[in-house]
Here is the input.
Amino acid sequence: MTMNRSPEGLDQSPYRTIWTLSWPQILMMVFNFLIGFVDVWTAGRINREVQASLGLITQSLFFFLIVATAVANAGVAAIGQSLGAGRELRARRYVGLCVLLALVMGGLLLVLGLPLKSLLLSALQVPDSIRPVTEYFLWVYLLLLPSYSVLIVLNAVFRARKQVFFPLYSMAVVTILNTVGDLGLGLGWWGLPELGYQGLAWATFWSVTLGAAANVAALWKEGLLARATFAPWRWVRRALPYLYKVSWPSVVMQVVWHSGYLVLYAITAALPRDNVVSLAGMSAGIRVESLLFLPAFAFNMTAGILVGHSLGAGRFEEARSYGYRILVIGLVCIVAVSLVVWQYLEPLAAFLAPDPAVQREAVNYLFWNLLAIPFTLTTMILAGAFNGAGATHFNMVIMGLATWCLRLPLAYVLGHLVMGRASGIWISMLASQAAQSLVMLYVYAFKDWSCHGMIKHKHCKKEAAHAPRI
Here is the structure.
């Protein structure tokens, strides 16, 4: 029995279709939020050095997972468009190809990352006071890369198939195990050995590994680990070009985006005063801010699903209209949630960061970044639509320029030369989000991004990328 809850064919209205796919993904993002929230809360109860180290290495982990994220984005486009076109076998084979790529790339990054971990710590300008803790987190997280890659790619595979409950279940597993591990091994609750920051690291390792295992079990249950899922080489040679076309801009964009965040952390770590406090405040503030990203990420993923299926079926105007509808729903939701969160900034910061100085910096961070939330939401939803269409190069160019040509130079100038404190860095984040969201909206409205799907749009001037017919 399949778990595919496809809205198509159920005569649902567009808004009902959006909600049917979005609410399980919103709940899934709640679990994601709880994972990060418990991590930072527990780290803060150990000491602020651990909290600052966790923020640095969590961002580094995202950097190492950029290939898995790119494969996941390409998989959503290829699988969704194949299913929209009614090509079930082609979609199944793309599932197998994405899984193999996740395993290979995750293992390769592990092998390459271990000998380079000291170089990365130096590049991040990690303060000496937190370097031993940061190095331990990095070592454990590198060991986690193969499992985390499989978790990310299989979550995307199920979303592309509109089987949005499987990612929800796997993230529930990760959340429960991570919470028990953080509190039990990190703080010694329930009579478990108190391992401090080492307990936090291994709680992440085992929770993510078992979450990936749950996804593999779901893949087997759906019959997607059968021989037919893994295509012969002659098919793979024809299928890889489209995955490459979609994934390489996503890889570059993720490198540019996450390396930009690493540089932002480095700029913060090198502030002339209160650098550790600023890092810890940023780490705590990001966790609160991520609460507002829950519906944004869910709508980002829904946009990718619906745009991909509509383009595969040849319904190009429907694909474009889904993006606008999701954007309107997202803005309404995010404004409502932001107004609630705004009333409780200080209690939330105090809950995450017992240190009074860190609390003040977390509130300062949130003030500027809450103002940026509508712009951030616009970027995220339209980026999801571009992912579903296979037009990932728009995300690469727009986000890359906003990060490296606006955010980082402005962060250094304001943070180091003008204001001499972290507020200048937070202001630069607001400015870059506003600029990139307006450009994204212009491109979505006036450029024919549907040309980058597998099916050729009648108005396209160039041939669309071809994929295997089976």
Notes: The two ends are 24 Å apart (CA to CA).
